[in-house]
Amino acid sequence: MTLLTGKRAIVTGGSRGIGRGISVELARQGCDVVIGYHVANDEDYGRDRAIEDVVAEIAALGRRAIAVEGDIADPKVAQRLVAAAVDNFGGVDVLSSNAGICPFHAFLDMPLETYQQTVAVNLNGAFYVSQAAANRMKSQGTGGAIIATSSISALVGGAMQTHYTPTKAGVHSLMQSAAIALGPYGIRCNSVMPGAIATDLNKDDWSDPEKRAYLDKRIPLGRFGTPEDVGKVVAFLASDMAAYVTGAALLVDGGLFVNLQ
Q1: Predicted model pTM
Q2: Which SUPFAM superfamilies match (predicted)?
Q3: How far apart are CA 187 and CA 183, in angstroms?
Q4: CB under 8 Å to 62, separation ≥6 — which residues?
Q5: Residue 168 annotated to the active site
Q6: 12-43 confidence digits (pLDDT tens)
Q7: Choice among 37, 115, 128, 164 that is catalytic
Q8: In 204-231, which positions are buried (b, 16+ CB within 10 angstroms) versus exposed (e)?
């Protein structure tokens, strides 16, 4: 039996990496999925190939997938994603606010544009799409689940991430406050905090033998995570199995955060 049979989901940043893992797992658990993606982020993969691949994978599971291109930093894109879910599936039950960027850069000489773009995508975009989906969920009157992708980086510092870590802490805080604001409407809001997850976006880290050996030693479970590991936790939080869970943040890191050795 699937956890989310007949549910309608939106996943932002859903064509690659963790987002792809979430999109496919939600479909595997019974959701039809609107996948938000941005061509500029997929160019090194072959422009539209990434979204075509994940749409085909979802179709093979017997579920429907609708692709919506656009930069989530633009509030109009959030409205388009919700409209696509309503027009194609009749509504929205689940939102995975996952889109994010992390252009590593030193702090002292960071270009203003790099900082502003990171905040615009990671934090502003999460706000826009969460607000748009929540308004639709409220009007439906049947509750819903919003799960944002924060990061272990919300809890620790990073010399090359002074623009990124505050956005991930902000996403976590957004879900805490939204949980209070939306609880009366039966809308649950939680975040996941992935640790070291092997994707094509961070391949320089996990494919470097020295970094890989160091992190494998630091992670109590002895391996990098996969996008599927995160997708399963998102599906759980979206499901009735988490019916009394809201305002929470779940680390998906194999124990990395608690291992201070």
Answers
A1: 0.95
A2: NAD(P)-binding Rossmann-fold domains
A3: 5
A4: none
A5: yes
A6: 999 999 999 999 999 999 999 999 999 876 55
A7: 164
A8: eebeeeeebeebeebbeeeebbebebbb
- In angstroms, the CA 65 to CA 61 distance is 10
Q: For residue range 160-184, list pLDDT tens digits in order.
A: 999 999 999 999 999 999 999 999 9
The CATH number, out of the four listed (3.90.470.10, 3.40.50.720, 3.30.1360.30, 2.40.30.10), of the domain defined by the range 8-252: 3.40.50.720
What is the pLDDT at residue 45? Answer: 44
What six digits make up the tokens of 226? 């996969």
Q: Considering 115, 168, 232, 239, which one is annotated as catalytic?
A: 168
Token output for 60: 């093979």
Identify the active-site residue in 151, 153, 191, 239: 151
Region for 252 from its dihedrals, namely left if φ exceeds 0, alpha if ψ lies in -120 to 50, beta otherwise = beta
Residues 6+ apart with CB under 8 A from 144: 92, 93, 94, 95, 133, 134, 137, 186, 187, 188
